[in-house]
Amino acid sequence: MAKQTKKQKTVAELDNEKLYTVDEAIKVLREHKAKFDETVEIAINLGVDPRHADQMVRGMVSLPSGTGKDVKVAVFAKGDNADKALAAGADKVGAEDLMEDMQNGNLDYDRVIATPDMMGVVGRLGKVLGPKGLMPNPKLGTVTPNVEQAVKDAKGGQVEFRVEKMGIIHSGIGKLSFKDEDLKANFKALTDAIVKAKPSGAKGKYVKKVSLTSTMGPGLKVDLAEVEGA
Question: Which Gene3D superfamilies does the record match to this protein (predicted)?
Answer without folding.
Answer: 3.30.190.20, 3.40.50.790
